[in-house]
Amino acid sequence: MERSADALADEIAGTLLHRFGKLPADALPRDWLDATILTVRNDVVERWVASTRATQQRGLKQVNYLSLEFLIGRLLSDTIRNLGRDGEVADALRSLGVDLASLETLEPDAALGNGGLGRLAACFMDSLASMALPAFGYGIRYINGMFSQRIDPAGEQVELPETWLANGNPWEIERRDSVHRVGFGGAWQRDDDGRVHWTPAELVEAVAVDMPVVGWRGRHVNTLRLWTARAIDPLQLEVFNRGDFTGALADQTRAETLVRVLYPNDSTPAGQELRLRQEYFFASASIQDIVQRHLHSHGTLDTLPDKAAIQLNDTHPAIGVAELLRLLIDEHQLPYEAAWDITRRTFAYTNHTLLPEALESWPLPLLGRLLPRHLELIFRINADVLAQARTNPELDPRGVAAVSLIDEAGERRVRMANLAFAGSHSVNGVAALHSQLMRETVFADLNRLYAGRINNKTNGITPRRWLGGCNPGLTALLRDAIGPAFTDDLRHIAAARSLADDAAFRERFLGVKRANKALLVAQVAASTGLQLDPDAMFDVQVKRIHEYKRQLLNILHTMVLYERIRARPQGDWVPRVKLFAGKAASSYARAKQIIRLANDVAHRINADPVAAGRLQVVFLPDYNVSLAERIMPAADLSEQISTAGMEASGTGNMKLALNGALTIGTLDGANIEMRDHIGAADMEIFGMTAAEVAALVRAGYRPTELLAGLPELEQVLAALRQGEWSPDDAGRHATLVDSLLNEDRYMLLADFAAYDAAQSAVDRRWRDRDGWAASAVRNVAGMGWFSSDRTIAEYAAEVWQVHG
């Protein structure tokens, strides 16, 4: 080990010299980081090439995972841990006078995603590599990504560009031989031989930039291929020489706009067009690449479904269905029927939402203007779908209209979920309840038309990052107590369940939790100046800010709790730290208002001496993977309180439980399956079921009628409306109160009393220190089934038919 560390130290110093022209004495911390990554990458590249060659030589079927997001987080610590070289790298750097832990904090989080969908894609890529299943992930190499969130002194979200590429990305390799042209606009025509020619008005080049995805123990390395964009003619020299410097670079600027940000604000026509252009750009480049690689390896497209599986991660890449069909027909002269059969057998689609407004659709004029040939093919597909639907005895005219790829109500729009559904042989939800509701609600008519196509694949998380990486103290404790088998197969963590009854183990477990909380306390103090109480209950709700996730329910209850403390300051209060984090989409005004309210509440409560030692509130800005890795191990209580039937699955719930947090939550998403595996006694479940929510909607929900039975909440809402929580702007939150009293779409008032009772039960649990610790241990032990390895094994066997 010592010789290996010495040799590695020499390699790192050599990289520092030959790549950056610096001696150790002159190197800055960022130089050391890049030199370390490049040195480790040498080992990775050798394994990467060997994995790729083995896949080709064995003729294995390959998974192609198309996702607009990959929230991969920092890669150095993850990579060296998966290689089993973390100790060696730490020793080598120590001999050079450098601290690995300090270097790791310098690596930026790749700005390639926003929330759960992107993090799920990253977990799946980790599992695919760890299980040695050949795979490519396809996405966009965003220059600035989602956005960097700051909270200004007034408590409002401020969006700034992510600058993760400011110093380059030493993990990536540009593939100059993998370049594809992507067209927009123009017109198409059919020649005398029946061959269709599309002549785009605009062409850009998609250039592949690859990053390695290292599996557990370094046995296999897959590829994350991200597309960047460049103009065919980046500099129009003649225009430049005329003095029109801006015009000379206009094509390149337009191309770079495609890869500038994730989810551009689509509340304007220009933003909406950019988002569609982005989606087609990455889908087209990816499909072209898959077809090209398949032809290179196998020679004929007849075998494409046998050698390539394409998984659509939500509807963002759904235009890929029409793109593959176009390539097969227009470029490779296959008959429509044969091309459609190949397309359908190649694609599979994962749905992530039941909210109708979140199911993507595009106005016909926009799609027709940007992608005229694709719209024609969509019409052709739709003709077949409607013909089949009209012969189905289970579908009445309303049902036929519902399965159409074209929404004819009002502005005519192309329904991308219907296109993905029709063009895939498998359509899956991501939790048992979600898949059931897909069959019964949003996709009920498509389910009647394509019986058996919907299946369930409950989400999972990679234990490499979300236990081994973020919680080394708990990992070491478990390894000592039950052996190391769980690090290779998380199902073995079930052996820890009996340890809940071991007083000595519980004490060590609480010691690890306390140490993790102290680390978070230090980080919060450094970033916000607020000193948290590490002995208080850390009550955590961290996720994308959205009304259905009901951060507002949590905030309103916090306000009620504060008023109770003010009324009885000498009461026996359980000390709590209410911790919120998450980003609101730039165009989502109500979500931004919820963030502002959270900060208004924090300002008032944290400044009140009466609340000191009893209640603190903090909103941590710029939630990302690295911050999550600090929060998850420190959390005591996990808030999973979405309106039942609206959260597809959730994965934050899994990460928090795996790290020993108890869940307070509704019977929604994967909470239901977590209850089945952990045990109902070790979770605090409250509120209406999805069926009860639906029944209340049908009966006519009237939120104001509930207020008489909720006097404390009524008083808080009145104070909020009158400006007591926003003295600088008395009317700031009036519209928020109005929306609750007049509509309350997500039924906060209907669930408030049950939530309040559940929080009181949580307090009683917390006072029983041993009982709390035992429940927390059983939560950890019950999470083995929620590994993304299990999820990927199900996809591999039941959807993709792939093996390593």
UniProtKB/TrEMBL annotation:
Protein family membership: Belongs to the glycogen phosphorylase family.
Organism: Croceibacterium mercuriale
This protein's UniProt keywords: Allosteric enzyme, Carbohydrate metabolism, Cytoplasm, Glycosyltransferase, Pyridoxal phosphate, Transferase
Identification of the protein by name: Alpha-1,4 glucan phosphorylase
InterPro entries linked: Glycg_phsphrylas, Glyco_trans_35, Pyridoxal_P_attach_site
Gene3D superfamilies: Glycogen Phosphorylase B
Signal sequence coordinates: none
EC number annotated for this UniProt entry: 2.4.1.1
Residues annotated with N6-(pyridoxal phosphate)lysine modification: K655
